[in-house]
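check this one:
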Amino acid sequence: MGERIGHLLLIILVFIQVWFSTAQNNDFTAMRALKDAWDNTPPSWEGSSDPCSDWEGIRCTNGRVTTIKLASMNLKGRLTGDIAQLTELQILDLSYNKDLTGSLTSAIENLKKLTDLILVDCGFNGPLPNSLGNLDSLIQMSLNSNAFTGPIPPSIGNIEKLYWLDLADNRLSGGIPVSNGGTPGLDMLLNAGHFHFGKNMLTGNIPERLFRSNMSLIHILFEDNQLIGPIPSTLGLVKTLEVVRLDRNFLTGSVPPSINDLIRVTDMFLSNNRLTGPMPNLSGLIVLNYLDLSNNTFDPSSVPSWFSTLESLTTLNMYSTNLEGQLPASLFRIPQLQNVDLRNNALNGTLNIGTAPSNQLQQVNLQNNQITDFTQRSQDSIEIILLGNPICTETRVDNNFCSLPRNTTPYSTLPNNCGTKFCTPPRVLSPNCRCSFPYTGNLNFRAPSFSDIGNSTIYDSLSDSLISSFQIFQLPVESISLSNPHKVFNEYLVIKLQIFPIEVKGFNRTGISGLAFSFSSQAYKPPPAFGPYVFSGENYDFSLAELGHKSSSGVVIGAAVGSCVLVVLLILAGIYAFRQKGRAERAYQESSPFALWDVNNGSGAVPQLNGAKAFSFGELSKYTNNFSESNNIGTGGYGMVYKGILLNGQIIAIKRAKLGSTQGGLEFKTEIELLSRVHHKNLVSLVGFCFDQGEQMLVYEYIVNGTVKDSLSGRSGIRLDWMRRLRIALGAAKGLQYLHDLADPPIIHRDVKTNNILLDERLVAKVADFGVSKSLGDANRTHVTTQVKGTMGYMDPEYYMTQQLTEKSDVYSFGVVLLELITARNPIEKGKYIVKKVKQAMDKSKELYNLHDVLDPIIGLTTQLKGLERFVDLSLRCVEETGDHRPTMSDVVKEIEGIMELNGFNPNAESAANSAEDFTTRGSDHLYTNDSLFAYSGDHFPTKLDSK
C-alpha cells in the first residue's frame, strides 16, 4: 500500500514539473512571438532567449511572466493574441507607444490574474471586445486616448473589483450600458471610483439605473459626448462624488433638486448643454470650488443669494444663463474667489464689488450686459471687463475696464542662476544648469479647481509633489521643469513637463519605463487643486542620448587633458607648496566642522553630533538659488526657511538662523544635537547642517503638505475627515511617545502645536521644530527646572507656574492639539480658550456630547464620528490642571488606536499602509487604496487652494 502511494506521489510530482515547464515554455514562446510582432524592442531582448533573465520591462515570478512595463519605448506593431498565453500576467502597461496599432484581441480574457490593463495614448482602434468582462481580477482599466470605436461592452459590469475605468478620448459610440435582467451593466460596478468617458461620441440618455446609493464613485467625467435627455435624479444618491463633468453634451430639462445632496462635490461642470427650467439651488454643495453652468437656457432670474454662501468657491462661470438684475457686493467677498465670468446676461444697474473683496480675486468678466455705472475702487489689482455694457460709451472709452482682457505671462520654471550657459541642441538646460536629454510630455488636468493659471505658488506645489513622488518611487530624476500652462476649449489645463535625468547622458529604458508607469498607473497623485489628470508622453530617443553622451565625452576629455597639461606646465611647482601648507588646516576643519565654534557666545559647548552631514555655505547657496525670495517658504523667530534641491533631486528645507542671533545659536545647537540622534517615521528627519562663514543652518527633509494648522484652516487644500484626523493624531502621538520613552535620555518637545506637526505626501504626521526641546539628562529623569518656553494657548499651566518641566507638559499641549483637530479653531480665539469653550458646550447625556456647534463642520461630511466622545474624553484628560492626572503619551497612543478600531481600522495595518511603498516592486497590492484623500480624489479636502 505504501509503495503504491509513493508511486502515485512520484507521478503527481512529475506531472506538476511537466505542467510547470510547459507553462514556462508557453510564456517564453509568447514573449518571443510578441518580440517578433514589435519593432524597436529594447536591445536586451536581442541577446537572450529567456525573457525572465534580463529583458528590460519584463518581470517574472518563479519563472512566469507577471509584469510587462514598456511604456514610452517607441514600440511599433500590434498586440497579437500571443499575449493570452501569459496566464500569470498581472500588470500590462504599453502606454505612450503611439505606433502600437490594431484592435485589442478578444483572447485577452485568458489573463485571469491581470489587475492592471494600461494602454494609454497608443494607436489602438476597432471595437472593445466583450471578453473584457471576463478579467475577474482587474482593478484598473485605462484604455483612454486611443481610437477605439463601437459601444462600451456591457460585460465590463461583471468585473466586481474594478476601481478605475478610463475610456476617455476615443471614438466610442452608443449608450452607457446598465444591467437589465440577465444582462450586465456599469451600474453593477459598486467598487468603482472612476467613470472617465469624456471626449467620445456616446449617445442616448444617461440612464437612471446607472447610479445607486451604495456606489463608491468619486469622479464621473462624461464631458464632450452627444448625450441627450435629462440629468438623472439618481445622481444625487452617490454621496461619495467629488467631481461631476456632464458639460458639452445635449442634456435637456431642469437640473434635478437631488444634485444639492452631493455635499462632497468640489467641481461641478454642467455647461454647454440645453438645460432649462429654474436656476438650480446648489447651496448644499458646501465644499464646492469650481462651478460652471454656462451656456444653458435657464429661466430668467436674479443672481441667486446662495452663491455668496459657497465659501470655498474659487471659480464661478455663469455666462449665457439668463441672469438679470444687479450683482450683490456680497458675491465678491467669498474668501477664495478668483474668477467670475457672467458674460452675455442681462445684469444691470451699478456694479459695486464692495470695499473688502476676496484678496484672491483676479478677474470679473461682465461683457455684454446692461451695466450703467461702476463704483470704482482705488486699487486696480482686479481685472474688471465691462466691454459691451452701456457704461462703455464713446465718452468713456479710455476706461481700462472697457477693453479686452490683457494677456498674462505664462508660467515657466526658472533656472537656478545658470548665467549665460546654454546647451547645444538637442540637449536641454535643466533648472540645475546641466545639459541633458529630458523626458517630455503634457499633463492634462481634466477638472482643475482654480482659474488663476498665472499663480506661481500653485505650480511650485505641483513641482514639489512631482519631485517627492519620484523620490519615493526611486526614479533617477535630477530636476523637472514646468512651462506654458494654458486652458483649452473644454477647460482642461495643459502643462508641458520636462523631466531631467541624474545621468547627464540621459535616461535608460528602465528609468523611462518607471517614469511613464508612475503616470499611466495613476501612482503619481498631484496636489488636490489640480484634480484628475492624464499624461501624454512623447517618444524618447535613446540612441540620440547615447550619441550625445559619446560626443560630449570626447570634447570633455580632450579639453580636460589640454587644461591639465597647461596647468602642470605653468604652476606645478608653486601649487605644490601651497597645497602642503593648507592641507593640515583643511583636514582639521573637515573632521571638525565646529572648529570655529565660540563657547562664549551664549550657545554653550560645541554641539555633539551623531551622523549629520556638514554642508558648506556655498553648497546650500547653490541649492536655494542664492537663497532667492522665490525659494523662501517661511519665517519665524529663529530666521528664514528656504526650499532647496540637492544634486540627487532630493527636496530639502533649510532653516537659516538670523545672523548674530544668540537665540538662533541655542536653537541650532539644540536641534542639531537632538535630531542627529533620534530617528522615527513620525519625527522630521535632519539631513544635515551648515556652520560656515558665520552662518548657522539646519537642513531637513522637505515635507510637501505643510502643517496640520494649514490643513485645518483650509490653506493647504487638504480635507481632513474623521479617520484622517485620527491617523494624524496617532502619528504625532507616536512621535512624542518615542521622544518620551525610547530616546536616551528622554526628550521633552516643549512646543507641541499644530504648526509644528507636518504632513508628508501620504499625510503621515511628523513632529517638527525641536529648537526649544529639553533633554531630561541622566541625573534627573523626572523633571527639569528651566526657563519657561512654548506657545500661549498650548502651554501647560503647571509648568508655567512652577517652571518644573516634565513629559506631562507635552501631554497637555497635545491635548490642545486634539481639541484643535476636532474643532479647527485656534487655541485662543476672540479671547476664548478652546479648552474652556469645549467644557462649557459639553453635555455627556446627548449625542456627540452636544458639541455640534463647536465641531468643525467638515469633520463629519463623509463618515460617522464613531468614538468622538472617547476622543473628547482623552483630550480633556490630557489638559487636566495637574500633570499627575494626565495620561502618558503611551496611554494616549493606545486610546487613539482603540478609537480607530471602533471605526473598523487596524492601526497597525494603517501604519504599514502609510509607509513608503517600493514602487519598483509592487506586486498584487494595488495603488488605489486611499483615493479620496484630496477634494477631487487622490492617493494620497472645503478649500482646495491657497494662492498665498
User: Anything to note?
Assistant: The longest helix spans residues 542-591. The domain at 708-916 is CATH 1.10.510.10 (Transferase(Phosphotransferase); domain 1). The chain has a mean pLDDT of 83. DSSP finds 15 helices and 49 strands in the chain.
